What we know:
The structure holds two protein chains of two kinds.
Chain A: H1 3-9, H2 11-33, H3 47-55, H4 65-69, H5 71-96, H6 104-130, H7 132-137, H8 140-159, H9 169-184, H10 192-209
Helix pairs in contact in A: 2-9, 3-10, 5-6, 5-8, 6-8, 8-9
Chain B: H1 8-12, H2 19-26, H3 30-33, H4 46-57, H5 60-68, H6 80-84, H7 93-108, H8 110-114, H9 127-139, H10 146-149, H11 157-171, H12 176-188, H13 196-214, E1 230-233, H14 237-240, H15 244-255, E2 260-261, H16 272-276, H17 279-295, E3 301-303, H18 307-321, E4 329-331, H19 332-341, E5 356-359, H20 362-365, H21 372-381, E6 385-386, H22 411-417, H23 419-428, E7 432-435, H24 438-450, E8 456-459, H25 460-467
Parallel strand pairs in B: 1-2, 1-3, 3-4, 5-6, 5-7, 7-8
Amino acid sequence: MSEFLRILENEVQIVALSFMGTVYIIRLAWMFHFRAGQEVTMSAGDAKTGVAYSMMNVVMPWAMESARKNWSFYVQFVIFHLGVILGIAATFIIPYWPWLFDIGSVVVIFQIVLAAATAVGVIRLIRRIVNPVMRLISTPDDYFSLVVMTFFFASGVFAMPNTYEVSETPLIIFFIMTTFFLIYVPFSKISHYLYYPFTRYLLGKTMGHRGVFPRRRGGELPAGLE
Amino acid sequence: MNDKAIDILDVINLPLDTKEQERAVKENVPSVKEGKLKTYDPKGDNVKRLLGMLKTKLNRQIVGSMVGCVHCGMCTDSCHYALARPDDPTMTPVYKADQIRKVFKKHFDWTGRIVPWWVHAGDPVNDEDLNKLKNIVFGTCTACRRCTLNCPMGVDTATLVRLSRSLLTELGIVPEGVFAVSRDQWETGNQMGVSEADYLDTIEWMEEESQDELEDSSLKIPLDKEDCDFMYTVNPREIKYDPRPLGAAAKIFHLAGESWTMPKRGWDMTNFGLFSGDDTLGGFVANNLYEAARKLKARRIVISECGHGYRASRWEGYNWAKHAQDTPSESVLVTLIRYINEGRITVDPSKNSLPITFHDSCNLARSGDLTEEPRWLLKRICTDFREMYPNRADNFCCTGGGGALSMVEYKPLRMEAGKVKADQLAATGAKIVCTSCHNCVDGLTDVIKHYKLDMQVVQILELVENALVLPEKQETV
């Protein structure tokens, strides 16, 4: 392995990750400096249960009509985010546990998921361009984030075998993209995963307190008869 | 019925009408004079004022909703405006929320401050832009919160719409109806400007009517009676336009042997602050209620059938008034359940034999906890109850929410959006749609008339009253 690639996979990632972590800490401090709205009413439900229900929303597609009616969209969401998880995992596996990618089946799984995520990225990009609603609401950040994520997934497909002895180019591209993401993500919509716990927690807390979450499906006893 | 889709520009460009405001200023209306109710200043730098106020209104919940949106578009199918106008992308919840989100990004988001075009951050330029914002947030959204419940990120778009309304209300850039109703509520303590004399007359009238109907002169509608089990609070519509629900409640409470009262003041459980975004008005109105209950030493507050009234009085009002809840409150639906369950009243479902469906009000089902309560009652007071689909917290808005009924200039678009509701109603085959909200009564009535459906709208109290099995009278010797 060339020294350039070794540093790129290692020190450069550590610096970029530290930068992202620092920015995230500042961002979280900024979020927390806004006062939280207080609930001073007697509860009709349980805030903690509401929070748990709300947080688990992402793995309960049946709980939201928008996911039930657009199940293919939800499947795409799962694939896309599995691609994110495996892509990120690969950035740690390659430098620190490279032996994992000596296992053929592991490489194949990673490549299949990343290839599927690439396809979803393309589908989503077409949707954003073709659908009038998506065109109206999409910003340059939306398009750019989607394009670079799709390229990241695609580069990951070729980088996964980690065969630097054959060619370092796929790995160099993959890790340059990773570095770019670690610096860009905190300033882009991709950082939504940082906010997800907050928005879901706050919504769940209110809705749980008010007895709206977990959602009632019918047959529950009415108030006063529980 | 006009099938042609409305040109949205006709709505967005509706001019700001300030006749009511000018009249209020001329008449030296106290709430305007004291600065509680704001009027439009055409000479003021309203954009600058809006930007200054935005910072003061941000809390963690709002900021989360501002930054959490990923523009996935999943909210599109949840909105009755967007579904009724599929070729109009400006009807989507995300677009409406983005009108205030872009301002937030310009001033509070790093990327938005440095590279605003990258994230479509931007400010309104002048009062014309603010007026367009007014038409969007008041005229193309009923704040039904269906989008909130369908957002994978948990973005509360309805709260962002309310935030926008609150900023515009502070500037007096509001529809005339919003100003007029807010003024009434500030000045008279109730949304419809009902005077104390009219209120007392109506109470007396309904007391007499109910006595006659039950042939029981011992039936009373107590006023300001202390130390009762509950203080009953109503929607001014029940005083001004249709007091039958009040009469029905009086009969039922009497038959149940209830210890109850209505207050002379602080009887209006509705709250226009919820619709206008004015937390100060919201706190003032809600506190009237809470103070009345405290003064009368009522053991609880019972709220008659009203979606936004329930939400405002049971939930939001305490937060606006910054007043920890000290008196339990419940919807009259819960009271009715108690009576039937304890055998204090007897009902015969065969007295309501027409097919009935139930419309879940947004503020009861999505912002409140009442979905099973009306159903428990309906299964005991009618013989042919049919669900509409979707229902409960997934139900569609009646189109009358968010103060829409007071904003007549937006009615054509509202009726167009009502197609979704009309289709829901028609699919049930029911002759009666029951709801537990006065706004929904009017909203549904508008939809039924517009789409020529063969249905009528009733509320739960009316059905319970109809189903009552009156105790046999003892013959006096």
